[in-house]
Amino acid sequence: MSVLTLDQTSRWYGNVVAVNGISMTVRPGITGLLGPNGAGKTTLIAMMSGFLAPSAGTVTLDGTAVWRNTSVYRSIGLVPEREVSFGYLTGRQFVLANAELHGLPDPGAATERVLEVVEMTEPAARRIGTYSKGMRQRVKLASALVHDPAVLLLDEPFNGVDPRQRLHLMALLRRMGAEGRTVLFSSHILEEVEQVARQIEVVVSGRHAASGEFGEIRRLMTDRPVQYVVVADDDRALAARLIADPSVVAVSLRPEGGIAVSVADFGSFAVRLPRVAREHGIRVLELAPPTTRSRACSRTWWGLTR
Amino acid sequence: MFSYLVGADPVNRTLFRLSVQAVAGRRRGLVLLVIPLALLVLALVVRGLTDGDTGLDATVGLGLSLALPLVALLASTAVLGPEVDDGSIVYLLSKPVSRYVIGVSKYAAAWLATMLLGALPLAGVGLVLDPSEPRRALALGIGVRWPARCTRRSSSGWPR
Asked: What is the pTM of this model?
């Protein structure tokens, strides 16, 4: 059982503050580190894994500082976002090298055990250069798990992994959490985080914006109205019906056609819209969600910092 | 401060093996092989076409001032460069191994490659061009061996 503690940790690069006075405690179980791109998640993980010195504050693992302390790697497994570039090694050679570097008594057996855990026994004889993204991700995970660490840190582990592999990876993380390991992973996708993590820490612009169970975080993030654009064969009629629905906060007819709908509760809106349309014989031609770049989305993130 | 030097093996076998694979396992390995081969071929050609010491002077001079530094450069960038550039050195650094050992192990691999592919061929050149004096050939090979810095100084006037 290991606890990772950040106390008023900051990190700046010249004039740019990447991480701003963050205090958090990462306990056994799965913790999701959620935040938009550039929020400081990678910087945070780099400090947690002893690769960056905090400019101020401390990062400790069970009371010992992780910076300038290579012995903490006995209990930390790190899965960086970076690709494994040891393309000239086979998966097995790479994991075995990791096992040997950890000074394990039986590196061969540990390698086979962990390759089985990530279900890579069969492709392990091939060179890493030939692997798919999902396989690389699993080999990275195997190399981080080979010494059976109490703490597992993963930087954007689901990036670029196809849905099936993603489910497999999620199941694996859940298992790690259930075994009592302290697992922390970063992501910028709420849906991804809440599927795996109980505890969610939200970081926005280097600040610790929110912390809590996934239910609370979801409410904080989704209670803010999000704008959708709906185009129907009879916009005005649909607008009239939609405003009657409690999940909708505002409706306006757009001059270029279609209606802009502000939705407070997306869950029930998603169920209500097709039902309303069908009941009144209105045909919905187009439904556009807010894009990731839209103001609505950044408002969602920013809403958390206040 | 240097307590970690005492008792511990400064070269980690795994790291050394990985570094050797980094040198040999990529296309770079082939280039590294081509340089000493070219030097030896040149020595053979020179031997066929010239008499006296001029050929030896010129070929060894070329070997010392061009082939050897090139091999050393290629070998040392192969063991460290790509990993630092693409950040995958993180996989080596996140281990309970002192950073000093990581550095020394990589240095050892680059040194070995430079000796085998840079210094040894120079001795070969000496043998090819002047078989009557194997001791000079040996000196050519060994002369550049310790310390590596000598290669620079001796490139103008290598020891006879």
From this structure: 0.75
